[in-house]
Amino acid sequence: MLSDGTSIQGRSVLSHCQIVGEVARQLISRFPQPMQYRLFPKGSEMAAGSHDIGKVSPTFVAKILSACGIDYTRMPELAGVNPKLEQQWGGHAGVSQATAEDLGVPKYVAEILGQHHGFNPSVDDKRGNADVFGGPNWFDERKKLVVALKECFQSDWPKFDSAAQARVVAGLTSVSDWIGSGGFFENPDEDWRPNITAALNDAGFIKPIIRNGLSFAEVFDPINLAMQLREPQSLFVEQVSGPGVYILEAQMGMGKTEAALYAAYQLLAQEKATGIYFALPTQLTSNKIYDRFNAFLEQIISSATPQRGLLLHSGAWLLDTEIGEEGCPGGSWFNQNKRGLLAPFAVGTIDQALMAVMNVKHGFVRAFGLAGKVVILDEVHSYDLYTGTILNELVAFLRQIDCTVIILSATLSQARREALLQQATTSTAYPLVTTVAAVGEQNQLVEVGVPTVDNPPVILQMCDKNEQALEEALKRAAQGQQVLWIENTVAEAQQRYLDIASRAIQVGCETGLLHSRFTPQHRAINEDRWVNLYGRAGWSQRAKCGRILVGTQVLEQSLDIDADFLITRFAPTDMLLQRLGRLWRHADTPRHSSAKPECWLLAPTLECALANPHSAFGKSAMVYSPYVLCRSLEVWKDMQSVCLPSGIRPLIDQTYAARTESAQWASLLHELKNGSRFRTGEQAQQALAKLTLSKGGKTLPEHKADTRYSDQDTHDLLLLCNLRSQDGTTYIRLLDGSELTLPHSRHRLTKAEWRKLAVALNQQLVRVNPAYCPPKNTKHELEKLHLNEVFYLGRPEDDEALLRIAIVSKTGELLTQDGYPAGDKYLLEYREDLGFRAISNKE
Prior knowledge:
Strand order of the largest sheet: 3-2-4-5-1-6-7
Shape: globular
Strand content: 5-15%
Largest sheet: 7 strands, mixed
Number of strands: 23
């Protein structure tokens, strides 16, 4: 496309295929040499380069000529051709697949060619020489192209050892195509060879130069050099020797993250890994983990590595990398959650990793992104059976693609550990290091118990009245204590915050709120302030006044916060233990003299819970299984204190041990297994999970391929102060009052300028339940505003979810673009201190 927006014919199919094959060859060369042979069989670049042989077909050529303003109908070879028919067989990728099959290529190769746009094309039983593909004459031209490519690459087709290996090469093919279609190769009159290295570096595929021989203190405490490996950390690091699965079970606050990162550093230094993917348990990636990970990278990566090899914060990495059309603003892989998988180092969600084994669009690109890396799965505890089934498959798959899988948990049950390892274990020690290293064909199980000393006991008190707990929280904060209050739903956390905030001011205390329904911009500001205040960085501030921080599950994992007093809504045992890990976390934290390690549990009586769990547990029974809540309550109800870490294993075992049930217990267990009107049962969840893992059939769009079982999806909602289109420009005012403009022509801005706009607008999104969403905009309406230049709006044929938009009024109410209330059954609001909330019109 020229600078004025008109299209002209570009490179030949042969030239583009050569470029993509050479990009693939260079990408392979950036893996450690032993890994290259195991992951990429000889000829992998031939598979990547041959992806577009199907473009030598009448429908594709007619489409290109038409786009360039040329009347193809006058050409005898194209008379009567209808380019729209391509949709019936998945476009040129379907022709590539059918042609390869007719050429008798080795197993998996034809599918790799067919899937390079992310999904299985519906070729059905069409042959390579089918009339719709141009008949024998066009088929002969495609065969000549294949011969030419074999000559170019001096290679034949690859032969694969396993489906896992083929999945990695399928990802290599797509990524090579994205890079090979980028700006470095647009000019057909320019020699493309000198641009390969620059294009790979620009896409973020930089091989980091690792500093060797660093001690634990040099990595994590470079200023004081005082931090030493604790015994559980040391034992764990000793066990991690190369690709395999390594589980570290240890109490909250023990330093599992640092142990995992130091083990990963040693593998990187020995060239036994290509990078690190740090997978967090929720979609709410904590900025604090970014900070810790970046500090780690700054120590281990040599300054000779280009800066872009680093993780970088927030959307900054997106501003610096370019991977072709899919990775441009408006492309499906501009999103940092996905793109991070392809960078050498990334913090992301476990969801993105899980999709590497699911039949989801571009699932195999995720597989390629993870290949050879250290994959750290943080805070793995008792996921539901749906996610657990996919996670088991992921761990087994990562073992096949040269990954080192490190699993961190404070609260893993034996059954869960055995499912992840796919073999029996015997040790009941805690803390515990369990390893299955991939040494040759021997998967040797090693279990190492770690001696430990208990912390002072935590005093427990049951409470069934919010008012009583609220008074206690205010009293403790007035004394100068740092109080943490954790709820199970956003709505309840918002209500507690409103209950507390005005009264806290009267007694000279500060109040904060953290949950998932803030925009990334506001979430980062809130999190930065409150996590610093409750963490080591805020020690000098603790004595100034008492504080109450209210939040949801975002407070229970991956944050190094330390409270003097904890109030928590009752939850399953493993979640309660996670929350207790935020209480008196560090022995040397300065505290008010009145503070003692104490936790109040907001819970009903077991009798009420068994009689009517949905009434007794309220909204918590929609979040967690009533059976698991009751089993947990049975264990905790009479406890007056708990000793950690020695109490962790017994509490988990008592809660999750299988047993025969009767009376109300049997009814609740039946609901867990078979479902109710509130939730899908475990048996159906497991069946659904297995369905998403199937490699056959229709490829799911990403938003339909749920990595967590939920009866309801969530939508991206764009929150703005003002949005209008005028004179070829869309004018946008953000919540902070700043203004952006989107020109109605892509060529009026550079790619870097479009990326900057996209990153800014992605900071204005909040994910909400569809029941609380404003009315849909059609894809056409959003395209008229040119939001498709900065957001991926989805392919209509894939039924992709669309972006929703709301205007935030001066009072905080959400309105549609034409000024009407955005909610029907709910009053929808957004406030900087409260986040997004939906208030029933009945209230």
